[in-house]
Amino acid sequence: MKIQHEMTDSDPNPVKAGLPELLSRLWRFAMVLSHNEEAAGDLVQATCLRALQKCDQFQTGTHLDRWTFSIMASLWKNELRAERIRRGGGFVDAEEVLVTDGAEKIETNILLAEVLAEVQALPEAQRSTVLLVYVEGLTYAEAAETLEVPIGTVMSRLAAARLKLAALKRTEDDGSKRRTKTGQ
Amino acid sequence: MTSEVKDTGITDEMLVAYLDGELTPDDLTLVERALEEDVQISQRLDLLRDGERPWENAFEKLLEQAPTAKLEAGLAAAMRAIEETAPAPTAVELNRPLPANDQPKQSWWRPAMAACVAVTLMIGFAAGYGTNEVQKPQIASALGTEAELWRQAVADYQALYTRETLSTSLTDPIVQSAGLLRVAEALGLALPDAVSKVPGLDYKRAQILKFGEQPLAQLAYLYKDDIPIAFCIVRLDEADRTAKNEVRSGLNIVHWAKDGYSLMLVGDLPVDELNDFARDLEGKMI
């Protein structure tokens, strides 16, 4: 019996070979975009499909992660977000938490969970830019290309996000100072 | 959100770019000078700095929560859909033909998604949820018998496994026994501890998935510390039959049926060795 090798390291198709290890990061980006586990799953799958369809356009030696991120951003912007709104799903649901359920949740550092919650509260454009630049480490230029916006837009989104988060931090700091004083 | 501090020409965007190391040399000089000369600008910088967070650590947590098995299954379905839709319209597409005009922006994913739905594996964490699902193809007659469909679905899924997929499995014997018990209970079939002790295979974990409405047990092993092997069982009420070999998704399979249960062992290893392991497992299932 002949054993075929469709999924090995020697696969000449770098997209097919590289997608499996990108899935978690794609899902994370999809969660940041869609705020919803079901939509995120759909978005990852649609992204994989599109990437596989367009695999001849991928240039070997370039970053597969950035290439797939830009496919995902474009899909979300042009197709799935609208589809989801039409279906009445709503892509910004304040009640839905970015941190999903699971046994790990209990052990999750509360402060880190708070960071996720704060990012979740940002507008979609800001949180996707924050993820690409501050988490995925893209340069402004790379993030601009991925999101198909000018660099200036990336910069203003980051500034807006930082101001919002700074305000949250300072409100919180003031609150704890007051609590400390009351406690004395 | 652009807001300049006084009339210095220094914007919030420039200060953020300064913090992020993204300023051009000219702007860098400008900002550094302004920071030295104008306390309001340095206060504004402090404010923007307060908007920093331990981004990577926080988002690492989200990464850890990715439903890996479900995503792998989605990718498997996508790959299968591509294989089926790329060369020519196939049976899968008959319900929803590709439009004759080439407008991929509007239509590219719909036929492909239709094919995906047919063989979508929805698999969650084994630990406690009990809702993991391998969806039964809708257009079964076009693709083969139910028994063939489940073997194909399992093979598609298995083709995505690497040794790393199983590297995080807990190897504590008590955890493994508990996992087997849980899966056996869901399946309604005794799974003796012995199935986790096959000479030559390193047992990793058991999880319960679903194929249509039927619970599907998947026991994962590693062969020669490198090749993932799966032993899968589902109740399809097939007539008893002896072991047969086939290749699906590039993987060798040995499959048989007994007492209403369909069983298969699948992996990328020579068929003779696979058959030896299957015989061993068959003996242990009594």
Describe it for me?
- The complex is a heterodimer of chains A (184) and B (286).
- Chain A is mostly helical.
- Helix content of chain A is 71%, strand content 0%.
- Chain A contains 8 helices and no strands.
- In chain A, helix 7 packs across helix 8.
- Chain A is elongated, with a radius of gyration of 20 Å.
- Chain B has helices at 12-19, 25-37, 39-49, 55-64, 68-85, 104-107, 109-118, 140-143, 146-158, 173-187, 271-284; strands spanning 121-122, 133-134, 201-211, 214-223, 227-235, 241-248, 251-258, 261-267.
- The termini of chain B are far apart.
- Chain B has a 6-stranded antiparallel β-sheet. Chain B has a two-stranded antiparallel ribbon with strand order 1-2.
- In chain B, strand 7 and strand 8 (261-267) form a beta hairpin.
- At the A-B interface, helix 1, helix 2, helix 3, helix 4 and helix 5 of A face helix 1, helix 3, helix 4, helix 5 and helix 7 of B.
Task: Write a brief caption for the model.
The complex is a heterodimer of chains A (184) and B (286). Chain A is built from eight helices and no strands.
